[in-house]
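Dear Dr. H.,

I hope your travels went smoothly. While you were away I took the liberty of generating a structure for the chain from your last submission, since the lab meeting agenda had it listed for discussion. I wanted you to have the full record in hand beforehand rather than looking at slides cold. The sequence, exactly as received, is reproduced here:
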Amino acid sequence: MIIGITGGIASGKSSCSKYFSSLGYVVVDADLISREIVAAGGDFLRILVAEFGREVLLSDGNLDRAYFRELIFSDAAVMGKVNYLMHPLIAEIAQERFVNYSQSDIVFYDAALLFEAGHDKFCDFVLTVDIPENLQIERALNRGNITREILQKIMAVQMPRFLRLMRSNFCIDNSGSYENMEYQCDLFLKKIKNL
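The corresponding predicted structure, in token form, is as follows:
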């Protein structure tokens, strides 16, 4: 069974994934796959450099993530092009990993843009990790690695909260403590095992 985990920025989706992983469950992480795709010296990074110039690189040859995020979120055409190129690669690698882990009863697929990229079609169920928008903004800004302007642009391209919740099979309300999130994850696992 493949269970997609999604949620808006700073919702705690990654925290839930890490908790499931700590319990011994397999987690395929779309963000980690995207990092592998743009690894220094890789073919995809060469494509990005050819398309957007050497400015996208740090001096060590790795992708300058801060610069690239700014570039993507400042130009819808750039974002569209990058998504067009990356999402199929992420899907292909994720599917290979699902096959590799096919002996596992449950495999989690952590993907912030699960619905937006159409990757929910790979999942038997979707779990959304949700928090109110004001708390989402507060948590994202408290991380210190993002400006309010970029945060607003990221939130604008993510599926609206109400739609994400409507399309999900399950929801974890992560507006409380970490312990409460763990408790809700445990309850979710009990539900899913009884299906």
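Two observations you may find useful: The chain has one domain: 2-193. The chain has nine helices and five strands.

With kind regards,
E. W.
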